[in-house]
Amino acid sequence: MSAHDQMRAMLDQLMGTGRNGETSRYQVQFNDPKVCKSFLLYCCPHDILASTRMDIGECPKIHDNALRADFEKAQQKFDHYYDVDATEHLQAFISDCDRRTEAARKRLLETQEELTAEVAEKANAVHELAEKIGQTLAKAEELGAQGLVDESLKLMGEIEDLRKKKSEAEDTYRNSMPVSSYQQQKLRVCDVCSAYLGIHDNDRRLADHFGGKLHLGFIKIREKLSELEKNYEERHEARRKFDEQERYKRDDKRSHRSRSGDRNERHRRSRSRSRHSRHRSRSRSRSRTHKHDRRDRDRRRY
């Protein structure tokens, strides 16, 4: 995208579709069904997961920063209840992702060597510590990039303690099973983004995962859904009542137009009958006048 296009997009986002009186450039308004309501609320998965391993392509609905700006201005004056649409959209998306995660877990159970309950518990302890290290390392790097050096160093100290605990957990796990079985890569499915994590993954690999766009994108989507679901039932009921009121208003308007049309039609017919009656009266009057004139001419002739 050129610098000119970037500047135009920024102005659209700030000022909306009418920033230069260019209303003809937009064939739809923000409240058109073809516009993505999740995009207007900054939570469309198509945008959040773009350019990741789970990129789901372009959203079938319209995304436009200018329309989002129009919506934000309009929302300040009137509640459009678009959070209800966004909640239902994210619920469907996350439900589908959770089904895929469960299917991946089942495939692992079928393909990997089955562990006893005791060994599985020890393996899970290693996994959990490894994931904690990866998450903390990703957070420390983020703080360092923001210039928060002291906070970053504090987290690095925590990572060292976690590494010691992980090493002890690995020794316990290794001693509980044959060497040949231990050397096999034991996989685990990430609960957040359904990616596969290995028990032998190093800290760098785990940090890249937990600090990556895919994992953080799913965290954003899940947190947004959790936030929206808090008031979903209340908001859904409020929108239902609002829709009913709007439907009643539309029905009343149609009924009023129908009654008004009937009155106009009766008035038109009445005027037509009146004109027809006056026309017949004038015709009879002209006919009588014509007869009198003809009689008078006949009398003068004789």
TrEMBL record:
Mark out the compositionally biased spans (Basic residues). 266-302
MF annotations from Gene Ontology: mRNA binding
This entry carries the following GO cellular component terms, namely: U1 snRNP
An annotated GO BP? mRNA splice site recognition
Region described as Disordered:
235-302
Which keywords, in A-to-Z order, does the entry hold?
Coiled coil
Taken from the record, one Pfam family name reads LUC7
User: Where does the record place Basic and acidic residues bias?
Assistant: 235-265
Residue runs in coiled coils: 105-172
Say which family it is in.
Belongs to the Luc7 family.
Which named protein is this? RNA-binding protein Luc7-like 2
Annotated organism of origin: Aphis gossypii (Cotton aphid)
Q: What is the lineage of its organism?
A: Eukaryota, Metazoa, Ecdysozoa, Arthropoda, Hexapoda
